[in-house]
Amino acid sequence: MELQSIYVLWLRDLKRYVRARxxxxxxxxxxxxxxxxxGMGFRRVEIPSLPSNLTYIDFLAPGIxxxxxxxxxxxxxxxxxxxxxFGFLREIMVxxxxxTTIALGRTLGGATTALMQGLIMVxxxxxxxxKPSMGGLLLAFVFMFLIAIAFTGIGIAISxxxxxxxxxxxxxxxFVFPIFLLSGALFPISELPEFVAMLALLDPLTYxxxxxxxxxxxxxxxxxxxxFLVLLVFCIAIIVVSAYLFNKTxxx
Length: 252
Hints:
mainly alpha, 75% helix
């Protein structure tokens, strides 16, 4: 019963994603511009900490893919706020399933849509000049999935405190941009000022970006195993926290 409920909630989110073509296209607009204009604008810039045979667009692309996954997964929490406003969440809550099951189903649904958006961005980046290791794409997929799970969980945790869609969007925008900019997606962590670099080490996305970059182009600033373990522990912790907060949420 519980597994079937998780599947139904996951399938609902997936169907909503597939039917919302404007959402799919619109959410890729800004990342494509980031990749195209940053990649072309800094293509001749030499960054001391990067290997000489590594182009900036190859360095940048994994970070932009992580940006797509980050934004899509975090914003997936808006569906819970939407369901609360229109009464659907109340109907789910009275179903004979645990709230933890509901939280897991919504987490998997949001993470799957974020993962699909990330894979689309990977394909589009090929046309802009990105040349990843094809053998490493499977490992990159693992890191993308962990990023999606972690930040979908964060989106759900934040949604438990929100009752207004516009307020949720403002809070999320305030939250995700510092996470993205501190993650080393645009520039190496080693090139940042010491204080900013220390903040970057507290950013879970930093380890996701670094792991994806290692898988795709063979370059990383940390040990990839360390990246994986940090991200995995963070995923487990945020799933526990989001499920706890969802269990405590009140539905009017």
